[in-house]
Amino acid sequence: MTKSLRLKIGLSFACTALFFVLLLLYSMTAGSIPLTLSQLFKGLFVSFDQSVSVVYDLRFPRIAVAILAGAALAGEVLVEGDRLIQAPQAVLAQVQAHVPGAGHQVAADGLHHVLRQ
């Protein structure tokens, strides 16, 4: 791996991590009960605050489920990536086999028929 490629990968990872942290902070503070960052950190780490309890009860579970669902979907795409690209091509070939001389529009219309079977 070249030095410039390693730098690009590191920069991409750092930007993604920063964006993730910013979205995490936003999802903890935004909602029907808005919180400032100082209220959030004081309520989480210093003393109990009734307005911050919504973060424990509602926002943390929602954030955890979103992270786990996103990780599961990303893992599925990484594992099944080749099949996800090849599957529509296989279905399109099957449609074109049933409709000789079919153009892309006819094949795409027939795609819905094949998928419903």
Quick tags:
117 residues; mainly alpha; 4 helices; 0% strand; disordered C terminus
Can you summarize this structure?
The protein is mainly α and 117 residues long. It has one domain.
Commentary on this structure:
Helix 1 packs across helix 3 and helix 3 (53-98) crosses helix 4. The protein has 117 residues and is mainly α. The model is unreliable at 102-108 and 110-117 (pLDDT under 50). It is flat. The longest helix has 46 residues, at 53-98. The protein has four helices and no strands. It has one domain (3-116).
Fraction of residues in helices? over 70%
What characterizes the major β-sheet?
Answer: none
Strand content bin:
under 5%
In total, the number of domains comes to 1
Structural class: mainly alpha
Give the overall average pLDDT. 75
Order of helices and strands: HHHH
Shape call: flat
Oligomer: single chain
Q: pLDDT below 50 for ≥5 consecutive residues: which ranges?
A: 102-108, 110-117
Q: Kindly state the number of beta strands.
A: 0
Secondary structure topology:
Layout: H1 3-29, H2 37-45, H3 53-98, H4 104-116
Helix pairs in contact: 1-3, 3-4
